[in-house]
Write a structure and sequence with these properties.
The chain has about 240 residues and is α+β, with helices and mostly antiparallel strands. The protein has helices spanning about 10-20, 35-40, 45-60, 80-90, 115-120, 150-155, 170-180, 195-200, and strands spanning about 60-65, 70, 100-110, 125-135, 140-150, 185, 190-195, 215-220, 225-235.
């Protein structure tokens, strides 16, 4: 027995608009098409559209706004760095509407973190380039992006070591210059206590030595031969972060 009849179902409709919100094509406050328009576009029943919109509302992505119908919620989900790569590949948008990044910094440091050393196949004390930036939505810090690059990656993409914002993503530049495709590894998530530097960057004021839990996602990039970069995203408490299937 088929799971559902041929044609689009409510999950397909919800997925379509979820992707457009996630990619920044639909900004907070933008109205979704009317129920009738969605029915015509997907050739589905009104009940199917209602179920799809109900799913998006339960996820906090859209809300009802009277005569305006259904609109994108004011505080959309906070995406990861790897999702940002996907968004740029899809529509060229580095930032979603209302999103900016601040406190950019670039440094060369000896790496002693065991997880980073393992991910990048480095020995403790080896030098790497670290890039840090704080993402904001409507002026409110939502996440900290940290990327670490070993010497062999920086040799191919020296822009990574320059204290300026990257105009293009490192994976595109690396592939263009080496002919080697860049692959993303498995993204993982865990919770840990925020450092004082992270609390300051996220503008969280708490009494000294107060424990604040944050969600952290990590991913490692590779070519066919070796690891190329390690990305870590640290999210402000309360941030809604999509988890890929």
């Amino acid at each position: 027995m088929a799971y559902k009849s041929p044609g689009k179902g409510y999950a397909d409709v919800a997925s379509h608009f979820r992707a457009r919100i996630k990619s920044g094509e639909l900004a907070p406050g933008d109205a979704l098409p009317s129920v009738a328009e969605i029915r015509d576009e997907f050739d589905v029943a009104a009940k199917t559209v209602s179920r799809a919109l109900g799913v998006l509302k339960s996820e906090g992505l859209v809300t009802s706004r009277g005569s305006l119908g259904t609109v994108v919620a004011k505080s959309p989900i906070v995406i990861t760095g790897t999702d940002r790569l996907d968004r740029m590949a899809r529509n060229g948008l580095r930032y979603a509407p209302g999103e900016t990044s601040t406190r950019h910094s670039v440094m060369r440091r000896s790496i002693h973190d065991a997880d980073v050393c393992k991910a990048l196949d480095l020995e403790p004390g080896d030098e790497a380039v670290i890039r840090i930036r704080v993402f904001q939505q409507d002026g409110r810090p939502t996440s900290i992006g940290v990327s670490v690059y070993p010497p062999h990656t920086v040799a191919e993409v020296p822009e990574l070591a320059e204290d300026v914002r990257m105009v293009r993503q490192f994976d595109e530049l690396y592939t263009e210059r080496t002919g080697r495709e860049v692959a993303k590894g498995q993204r993982t998530a865990h919770a840990r206590q925020a450092s004082q530097n992270e609390l300051d960057a996220l503008e969280i004021e708490v009494p000294l030595h107060t424990a604040v839990a944050v969600l952290v996602t990590t991913v490692t990039f590779h070519d066919d031969d070796r690891p190329l970069g390690y990305w870590e995203d640290v999210y402000a408490p309360g941030a809604r972060v999509p988890i890929s299937d």
